[in-house]
Amino acid sequence: MAGRGRLLSCVCLAVFGLLCWVWVSLASLSDGLPHMEVLDAEERTAFQPQSALSDMEFSSVVSTYRGPGNRDRRRNKELPIVLWWTGGLFPHFPGDTERIDCSTSSCMVTSNRKVQLYKRTTSIIFYGTDFRAYEAPLPRLRHQTWALFHEESPMNNYILSHKPGIRIFNYTATFRRESDYALTLQWLPSLEYLLQPVAVSLQEKNRLRKEGLAPVLYMQSHCDVPSDRDRYVQELMKYIQVDSYGKCLNNKSLPERLVDTSTATGEEAQFMSFVSRYKFHLALENGLCPDYMTEKLWRPLHQGCVPVYRGSAVVADWMPNDHSVIVIDTFPSPKALADFLKRLDENDDEYVRYLEFKDRKHVTNTRLLEALDSREWGVNDMSKPNYLNGFECYVCEQENARLAAERAYSKDPQKNLPPQPKMANYSHMGCPLPSPGYGELQDLPADDGWMQTWPQDYWQSLDQAEGLESLIRHNESNPSLLWKHMQNLAVNRARGKH
């Protein structure tokens, strides 16, 4: 696998004598429509939304907002167009087209794919979970940029974790702090959410422990995931009592009133009361990637339970203080972790130290505080835009600035520089190769289901990423040629050609 992560050099087209192909052309745009065939939306039935975001409700008043520095008085037909390629994610209601007036400039946004080939359509926004290399809108038009919105687990689309997969985009909004429009704290509504009083007192938790309640809770129904979390938990169970609900490693039944999984995702009161009785919550993400943190981590902190966490390797950067979460990977083995949890279970003074952040004065992480204070979007806060509206405005502002720079350069190239190329890189999304949740890869049996699924998916997605990059580089118009390009790349690789 040594050559799999290689960085393909940008291919500069000497015939045009200007910029790298991945930026797309910076040619001036006219105000009219191009004289070319417009593809019918029905001809490209791609991207069926698979995310809970598809059901998100959006305020109809968002479009009436005008940023404090917006003096853009152009008519709608004069504005650049931003196309949401994943139509089910269009963050406006009703209709499929809207004018947005952002902080300093305005755009038209739409989910109508009929505008894909318009010259005024300067950028296309894709939803990462539903982005498929074999459905990409080709040819990649020289006057358009591509933007990526991907807040979900890396397991949903590993193509974006590879350099050739992510660098086809110009703008990004992902859970990585390095992305252009970072969504790192998307699962944390506010600081007040963390500061809520402990839901169940330590005295009550100790009483429940004496009655037989396990010290550790595990609740999962999505069992086959890249992080291979069940393998680790199964080993941990040999050394400490774990009450496991859900479909994965189940050894306990939920009360009938809580069987509906929607009670968990919606933080229904009875469900929250039930799980908050446990001292420790196993909080293992389904994919391991820097800055990918979900409700599995934030919810126990909110309730006053101690998360036993595996997920983002840099999770400590976002915790309220340096003593609020137990990180699994700091222990040499599941047994060592179990021994530590047993000691905490028996020592009230040590246990409550993990809950000191409930007192505001013990929240010492300035990075967390500044990020919560400065983010422009809100979580369940109608006084702020949601992050979908926020990102489309980011793209709108970037595109207006790019077009203005193009016009200035075209008018007087001696006095003005052309717009600088902008391209996403590995740090905007990159996630590592999945590894076993416990033990070494070489020790797994040949028929191990996880081994046959996720490492293969990771490498196959790299092949697709390289294939799509090749399609774009060769200005192909038929995405079904992806497989041919992948085959050609594999043959050249076998022959030692790069």
From TrEMBL:
<dbReference type="GO" id="GO:0000139">
    <property type="term" value="C:Golgi membrane"/>
</dbReference>
<keyword id="KW-0256">Endoplasmic reticulum</keyword>
<dbReference type="InterPro" id="IPR017176">
    <property type="entry name" value="Alpha-1_3-FUT_met"/>
</dbReference>
<dbReference type="InterPro" id="IPR001503">
    <property type="entry name" value="Glyco_trans_10"/>
</dbReference>
<protein>
    <recommendedName>
        <fullName>GDP-fucose protein O-fucosyltransferase</fullName>
        <ecNumber>2.4.1.-</ecNumber>
    </recommendedName>
</protein>
<dbReference type="GO" id="GO:0046920">
    <property type="term" value="F:alpha-(1-&gt;3)-fucosyltransferase activity"/>
</dbReference>
<keyword id="KW-0472">Membrane</keyword>
<keyword id="KW-0732">Signal</keyword>
<keyword id="KW-0808">Transferase</keyword>
<dbReference type="Pfam" id="PF17039">
    <property type="entry name" value="Glyco_tran_10_N"/>
</dbReference>
<feature type="signal peptide">
    <location>
        <begin position="1"/>
        <end position="27"/>
    </location>
</feature>
<dbReference type="GO" id="GO:0005789">
    <property type="term" value="C:endoplasmic reticulum membrane"/>
</dbReference>
<feature type="domain" description="Fucosyltransferase C-terminal">
    <location>
        <begin position="216"/>
        <end position="368"/>
    </location>
</feature>
<feature type="domain" description="Fucosyltransferase N-terminal">
    <location>
        <begin position="79"/>
        <end position="182"/>
    </location>
</feature>
<dbReference type="InterPro" id="IPR031481">
    <property type="entry name" value="Glyco_tran_10_N"/>
</dbReference>
<comment type="pathway">
    <text>Protein modification; protein glycosylation.</text>
</comment>
<keyword id="KW-0735">Signal-anchor</keyword>
<keyword id="KW-1133">Transmembrane helix</keyword>
<comment type="similarity">
    <text>Belongs to the glycosyltransferase 10 family.</text>
</comment>
<dbReference type="InterPro" id="IPR055270">
    <property type="entry name" value="Glyco_tran_10_C"/>
</dbReference>
<keyword id="KW-0328">Glycosyltransferase</keyword>
<keyword id="KW-0812">Transmembrane</keyword>
<dbReference type="InterPro" id="IPR038577">
    <property type="entry name" value="GT10-like_C_sf"/>
</dbReference>
<dbReference type="Pfam" id="PF00852">
    <property type="entry name" value="Glyco_transf_10"/>
</dbReference>
<keyword id="KW-1015">Disulfide bond</keyword>
<dbReference type="GO" id="GO:0046922">
    <property type="term" value="F:peptide-O-fucosyltransferase activity"/>
</dbReference>
<comment type="function">
    <text>Protein O-fucosyltransferase that specifically catalyzes O-fucosylation of serine or threonine residues in EMI domains of target proteins. Attaches fucose through an O-glycosidic linkage. O-fucosylation of EMI domain-containing proteins may be required for facilitating protein folding and secretion.</text>
</comment>
<keyword id="KW-0325">Glycoprotein</keyword>
